[in-house]
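Collaborator request, handled under Task 6.
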Amino acid sequence: MHFVRHLLPAALLLAALPLGAQQAGEARAVLDRTAAAFRSMGGVEMRFTARAPEGTSQGVIRLQDTKFFLETGATLTWFDGKTQWTYLADADEVNISTPTPEELQSLSPYSWLSLYETGYNLKLSPQGTDADKTTYKVVMNARRRDMDIRCLIVYIDKATLRLEKVGLLYRGSKEAIVLTADSYKTGQHYADSYFRFDGAAHPTAETIDLR
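Structure tokens returned to the collaborator:
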């Protein structure tokens, strides 16, 4: 696995040029194969390291189909395919919402793999380094300046079709957030209730319904 040692500069993330249909088609095929492989793994637990301008942190996400449970520091997020609960431990409050597709793009690996469907140009990086021999590098640049994610780069292991790392550059930011996969567990099974907030586990939490 190829680990990121520093934040990817914004200039690198925005370096993709207008693409021909053939190259975009190849990149799209890689993403579609990766998404299919992800789903064939059943329930997945992925532990990761996040590097952002604010610092470095660790987290874990557990996925099954479109559902997920995300732990990042003092924040817990559940999504059952329709409703999202975000629990903030420091404030002891839970926010309930129905996230938009754009909001999910910030959280779910499944959404990253289908981002190209919502207005992004694709580029499959050419082979040129030793890393390229074992890793696909797909660059997605937003076609419109008002999109929340300006650019996303995904690195995918060619042998396993697993995500190795992801770089996200958000609108208004000059530095990317880089997520590096540290470990995977596949073939897991999670009950549907696992992806919903359990009020009994947080009995004092204030509920803020944003739906």
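The cover message to the collaborator said: "Residues 1-7 have pLDDT under 50 and may be disordered. The two ends are 40 Å apart (CA to CA). Please let us know whether this matches your experimental observations."
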